[in-house]
Each structure stands twice: as structure tokens, then as C-alpha cells.
Amino acid sequence: MRLPARAIVAARDSALVIAAHSVAATGSSVVATAGSAVIATVASVTRPVVLAAAVVTLLSLPASAFGQRLFVGLEGSAPPTKSSDLSGFPSVTWATHASVDVSGAAATPDGTLYICSGAFTTELFEFPLSGTPVHLSTLGVDIHGMGYGNGTLYGYSNFTSPRGIYTLVPETGAAQLLVDLDASGFRFFALDFNPIDGLLYGYTEYGSPTGLYSIDPETGVTTFLAAPIPASNSSARALAVGDGVVYLAATRGDDGVPLYAWDISTAGPWVEFNNPYPEYHSTGGAAWIPDPTTSVEPSWESGALMPRIDGVFPSPVRGSARVSWSTPTGASVALDLVDVNGRRVVSLVDGGVQAGAHITNWDGRGEDGRLLPSGMYFLRLAGTEGETTRPVLVVR
To answer: pTM for the complete prediction?
Structure first.
């Protein structure tokens, strides 16, 4: 089950439709190759105030009933670790846990929390929030940020050569290079995996441009998503992704800098919320701990057995994109992109599928093989249970 915030997706989408004719785009896309990492720089898009208001509304409705929590911690054993169900966002309440050294954190779909500590020799632990960490292994490389997805634990190594993102084996500590970041100069101290789109997300204060990126674990492609947080000091050394929202932590609390949240499906903006460490600044770790009873498989509210479009990434679409969608039962479905008049532009899926979550890649082209021009389009997902739509903004 997702956060109740998802219940207002329809309202948010309506705001996007209303805003469709007043969206202005600036800039252009630049793609460059740096070593083994491909960097796609996405230019900024200006949006009307109604869109920003809708995003703030979306982020203001997390709930406590389902066990989902944001975990944060810092390096050094003095400050205790914290977690919150984000009730009352942006003025959330933080629960206090054991005081442990945290250089990175990640959580599995069943709610297992991993933390690591040690700047040069990094130890990996399993951390039950109600108890104390249990040592698992000494990692083969130094690790400063982690994420978990596709049954794999990922980590960013800053002092190993080459510097980059590694896959990790918790039981043995074995590490294998996944994405080489030496040439790009990026340092993703803040890292996590998003199960909705199958991408890693990282925040960097190094390389150019600095800010928020997505990283494709299959291809190594890194895509620039957002400028740094709008703070007096834009440092942030911990990141978690939960329910399609990026949370940045380990900011400069002693400089009055809060934590920040950024909705992936609407491409921001950064929304601040209260920092549990107002007297500290340090590298740290963050993880979104899902509700283990609802996060492994999609859950469907009674009376709402409808196919669902969960997101389009990136947004707006400038080249290719990934469409995340779900269906409650195994059935024949049709996923089409249509124009504002309802005419089909391209068919993305047409046939029988299994129940559950799916990701469909789209190359940004219509049925004639040409790149679609800038404008507002709509994804339409139809199945035996019903039909749903979602707006898609294309910017060239």
C-alpha cells in the first residue's frame, strides 16, 4: 500500500491539465560521454504556481498507519539515529534510536535496514530500530552511501580506485564495480534506489553540474534532474527514496539548513521539512523503510481495482522515458499515448500481462518513428477493470 498522498494523484494530475497551456520550457538537452558513465544533462523547466502548489499538497500528506518510515543518521557515535513516519509534514516528529555511526543506509522491501560505518574500512550491519546493530561483514571497499533494489545492495565508494558505485554482497562484503565515476567527477555520498522506475538516485556536490541525478544501474547513464537545494549551504550527504519522493538528509543543520523532499514524477520543486540534527553537519545515511506487509507486492484498496499509471520518468520528457504502471489482475491491457484530442499517437502495450507492477520503456517517438514535438500528451491505460489517464509533458 502506498502513502495516502497517492490518493490525491488525480487532483495533482488535474492541476497539471489546467496548467498545460501555461507551461514554459527553457534550455536544451546536452549529452556527453565521460569515461564509462554517460551523462545526460536535462535543462530546467518553468512551471506555473498551480503546479508547485499541487506538489506541496502531495508532499504534505504522508501517514503513520502503515509502518513506513524515513530513517536518518550521521557519522560519529554522539548523535542518536532518528526515524519518522512524516506525519504532520513539513513539521514532522522524530523518534530516537540507538546512537551509532552511520555512513550510509538502505532498506529492503521486507523492511530490513542496513547501515554501514567507517570512512576507509567500512563495516556493514543489520540494524533493527528497536535494538542494536548486528555486524554482517567488512566491505571490500569504503562505502559512504547505499541503496537497495533488484535484490542487490548498492554503495558509493569515494576512496577506492576507480571511484564509483559498487554492488555489495552483505554476507561476505564482496564488492564489484558497477558505474565508474572517476571521469565525471561526481561523488554520490547521498544515494538510494527507487523501486518504481528501477533507477538509482544520487546527490552530488562535486562534478558539473552539481545537484540531483538518476543513475541507470543497467547502462551507467546518469541524468541530471535538479539543481542543488535552495539553501545557504547546499551540502547534503544522505538520500532516501520513498513512494516516488526523494528525501535529502545530512544537511548543514548547524547553519540552519532543513531537510528537503523532491517529488520525482513532477520534477520537484524542493520542499523543506524540519531537520532532526539542528546542531550538526556531517556525512550520514538515510533510508526509506517500507511497510513489510504491503511493500513487496502492489496492494489495492477495496472497490478500487483499477489499472494505475504510477509515474513517468523523467518528467518532463525530453528524449526517452520510462512509464511505471500497475494492474491488479492478470488481464489484457492497452497502454497508449494520446494527444489532447484523444487521438492515439503510439501504442506502448497491447496484450495480456501478469498482475502487479510493470515498467515500459518509450523512445519518445510516435507510430511514424519520429520524435514527438513539444506539447501536452496523455497516457491512457485501459484494462478489463477500467481505464485511467495521466498527463505527459514533452519538451524539445
So the answer is: 0.67
